[in-house]
């Protein structure tokens, strides 16, 4: 019983972060991911930041999982992104439930930006104007941050 009482607050925090688009790394640092580009554009314009859109197959795409593990979960990327980007994740899972509206919305965005495979990273100005397209890059988080900076 004591174990259950100790674990409940941890489960609550995990549920809280997973439901609001945040993801935590091992050190408890988090990224805020939007799942709606229009909302992200509002935030980006208010904060005068570019937008990074991650088109991913989170539960099946090997390169997407590598990008998450090698880059998005690392302190270097988290620090850079939290200070400089507005993040959007548009997911195309095979085994995770999504509403029909979410599937339709995600598909329309993928068509709009000509996404052909995963992961596809689209960089946008704060007003939603496309700047660059990229994907997985070898070299870890620090290298990826430099790559993103060079494209912006």
Provide keyphrases for this structure:
Glutaredoxin; 6-stranded mixed beta sheet; 20% strand; globular; 6 helices; 152 residues; alpha/beta
Question: How would you describe what is shown here?
Answer:
It is a single chain. With 152 residues, the chain is an alpha/beta fold. The chain has one domain (2-151): Glutaredoxin (3-Layer(aba) Sandwich), CATH 3.40.30.10. It is built from six helices and six strands, in the order αββαβααβαββα. Strands 1-2-4-3-5-6 form a six-stranded mixed β-sheet. α3 (62-72) crosses α6 and α4 (75-84) packs parallel to α6 (140-151). It is globular, with a radius of gyration of 16 Å. The chain starts with a helix and ends with a helix. Mean pLDDT is 88; it is low at 3-20.
């Amino acid at each position: 019983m004591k174990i259950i009482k100790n674990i409940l607050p941890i489960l609550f925090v995990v549920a809280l972060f997973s439901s609001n688009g945040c993801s935590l790394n091992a050190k408890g640092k988090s990224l805020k991911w939007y799942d709606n580009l229009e909302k992200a554009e509002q935030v980006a314009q208010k904060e005068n930041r570019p937008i990074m859109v991650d088109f991913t197959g989170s539960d099946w795409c090997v390169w997407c999982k590598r990008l998450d593990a090698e880059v998005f979960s690392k302190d270097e990327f988290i620090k850079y992104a939290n200070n400089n980007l507005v993040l959007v994740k548009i997911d195309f899972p095979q085994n995770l439930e999504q509403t029909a509206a979410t599937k339709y919305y995600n598909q329309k965005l993928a068509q709009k930006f000509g996404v052909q495979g995963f992961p596809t990273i689209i960089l946008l100005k704060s007003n939603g104007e496309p700047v660059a397209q990229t994907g997985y890059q070898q070299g870890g988080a620090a290298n990826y941050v430099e790559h993103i900076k060079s494209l912006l």
